[in-house]
């Protein structure tokens, strides 16, 4: 299996979203054949972000990233991902368990060469 897709619920923390908006569906995706070192996050609408898998993993333990994507832990059970674009900033909060489950699945799906050299 080279493609991993996991649906999750996230809270959008961006200022232009009402506080009562609740959780929205997001999709975490990994394709070892397309790019074994990258993950994709699909937000509602036409918003897909691709960034290094290592950034997602590092950001669960401590703030990581300095470019268009930044990730950091939010307490013990949440993670925050901040996406910067010319259109503004989107900030989403996900359950850390869902992200960890996704990452474990990506490492199982990775090719043996990627696991050895990744």
Short description:
23% of the residues lie in helices and 45% in strands. The chain is an alpha+beta fold and 118 residues long. The chain has a 7-stranded antiparallel β-sheet with strand order 4-3-2-1-7-6-5, sandwiched between helices.
Question: What is the topology?
Answer:
Layout (H helix, E strand, L loop, with lengths): L2 E10 L10 E9 L6 E6 L3 E6 H7 L9 E6 L3 E8 L2 E8 H14 L2 H6 L1
Class from secondary-structure proportions: alpha+beta
Q: How would you state the average pLDDT, rounded?
A: 86
Question: Helical content, roughly?
Answer: 10-25%
Shape: globular
Radius of gyration: 14 Å
The strands making up the biggest β-sheet line up spatially as 4-3-2-1-7-6-5
Assembly status: single chain
Elements, N to C (H/E): EEEEHEEEHH
Number of strands: 7
Beta fraction of the residues? 35-45%
Question: What does this protein look like?
Answer:
It is a single chain. 23% of the residues lie in helices and 45% in strands. The chain has 118 residues and is an alpha+beta fold. A seven-stranded antiparallel sheet has the order 4-3-2-1-7-6-5, sandwiched between helices. The radius of gyration is 14 Å and the shape is globular. The model has no long low-confidence stretch (mean pLDDT 86).
């Amino acid at each position: 299996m080279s493609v991993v897709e996991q649906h999750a619920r996230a809270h959008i923390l961006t200022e232009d979203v009402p506080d009562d908006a609740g959780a929205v569906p997001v999709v975490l995706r990994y394709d070892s054949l397309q790019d074994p070192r990258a993950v994709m996050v699909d937000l509602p609408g036409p918003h897909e972000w691709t960034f290094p898998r290592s950034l997602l993993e590092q950001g669960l333990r401590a703030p990581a990233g300095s470019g268009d994507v930044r990730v950091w832990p939010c307490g013990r059970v949440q993670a925050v991902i901040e996406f910067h674009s010319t259109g503004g900033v989107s900030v989403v909060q996900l359950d850390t368990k869902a992200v960890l489950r996704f990452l474990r699945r990506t490492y199982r799906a990775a090719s043996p060469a990627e696991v050895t050299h990744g």
